[in-house]
């Protein structure tokens, strides 16, 4: 599982209300519609700036707040492939993996807006190609790796039918 | 080596010894979804070709976040929930019954020792009666509906000991805001918090729920109060379901213990736009406000409406302020009616909206205007939370919100409670 993309940088404590506001998420299941409003309260132009395959890099506690799975789903729908942060809020972290969004804990002080990074979850590292630095990533629980490898919990369950797989 | 409440509950469910950090796949006692998260769970359920629901009598849907529906698209999502529930025999709490978390506790569904998941982050509230409850996502709710189980990482626990005594005019909300300031918005990430000490023992079950509700605001997976006689009485008044109380071992091992002397604590206010941006009321006095909101799963219960009515009785809400009150449940509303609190509040100039989430999450019923300051009893004050990014939200206790509604600026409630 290896991906390369360009980074959009944010600060600490980006909450799920900022990722996708409650006023939109209650209205629709259409993720393309929600994708237009991603990060709007922090950067009204964000959705237009994203190119498919881009990453977000942020500070600590990314995704704090509500349990809305619309947050990682809307990020994916708007083209974001993964989020790198110093730490994540736990429900967001689980939701992201369940939706197939890469979430990577690393020292994002070494990543600037516009940098190009490669994430390699197998190796457990992030390489900042722009700056030539390699950052280590703490290992994920096996169940999360398996879910991510299948592209999310829906596919995982379609394949295995339970968490107690071989 | 002793075990914490969280470890003992997971141990009971897993049927084997567990340690913090272990991954376990265990059955849950209840699964809850609300109208903001359940439609997506139903979609995932269909995508996974779900045919049956594991244990429909242990699943609850609540229509509370955007209720009554303000839009046709929302009405369609509500109907999607209703028809799915009907197909599988799942119980639905309809528009106006109340906030999901209040219903799960006050209707006698959750009991001490239960393991509960809910597709809502404040599911952690039920720790007030000694359950382990935590928020999950929609697809996880779909999986739980299909299989009755979910994987968990057994959390470490943080012990918060609240000693001393609360002064008049200081409430559980002030305590938890103070804790948020001490810990920060990520201070307990992935941990379970246990609340101990004489201050907790003196609180009613409803007030304890204010503490456990906001555990997630410091990143915690769960917030729990060890059940005592008060808890057992409260639960038995609501259900005949047998239960076994789970208490932490006296020598339980905590990741960290925090001792807080509450004796000198004064009312607290969380400033925009962070829950942990907390200052004592003395630094907030005089900030003008345009909207005041009493309600939510944090502070919409009987003791909350009681103190608001007491402060407003015979007084008037400031002409520049809209005071909005959303009781946490239908029962709370009826008690407020019977005891005359609704009259006190309405005569003072307050407006009641239906039991439920009200304007908490910015979908309807009280979206603030540009540049407005709002003082609210809710648990979150993120920018845009109430539906307008140009508004600023201050969080405080119901008493502080009521006093501020009268004065049109943030005010100290203690002078109204003498
Ligand atoms: S009252 Fe507010 S915080 Fe509580 S469940 Fe409803 S929207 Fe969420």
Automatic annotation (TrEMBL), chain B:
It catalyses: (2R,3S)-3-isopropylmalate = (2S)-2-isopropylmalate. Residues 7-284, 286-408 form the Aconitase/3-isopropylmalate dehydratase large subunit alpha/beta/alpha domain. It is an enzyme of class 4 (lyase). It comes from Candidatus Caldatribacterium californiense. Catalyzes the isomerization between 2-isopropylmalate and 3-isopropylmalate, via the formation of 2-isopropylmaleate. This is 3-isopropylmalate dehydratase large subunit. [4Fe-4S] cluster binds at residues 297, 357, 360. Gene3D superfamilies: Aconitase, domain 3. InterPro entries: Acnase/IPM_dHydase_lsu_aba_1/3, Acoase/IPM_deHydtase_lsu_aba, Aconitase_4Fe-4S_BS, Aconitase_4Fe-4S_dom, HAcnase/IPMdehydase_lsu_prok, Homoacnase/IPMdehydase_lsu, IPM_dehydratase_rel_enz, IPMI_cat. Keywords: 4Fe-4S, Amino-acid biosynthesis, Branched-chain amino acid biosynthesis, Iron, Iron-sulfur, Leucine biosynthesis, Lyase, Metal-binding. Pfam families: Aconitase. Binds 1 [4Fe-4S] cluster per subunit. The gene is leuC. The keyword Iron-sulfur applies. One of its GO terms (molecular function) is 3-isopropylmalate dehydratase activity. SUPFAM superfamilies: Aconitase iron-sulfur domain. Heterodimer of LeuC and LeuD. Its cofactor is [4Fe-4S] cluster. Pathway: Amino-acid biosynthesis; L-leucine biosynthesis; L-leucine from 3-methyl-2-oxobutanoate: step 2/4. Its EC number is 4.2.1.33. Belongs to the aconitase/IPM isomerase family. LeuC type 2 subfamily. One of its GO terms (biological process) is L-leucine biosynthetic process.
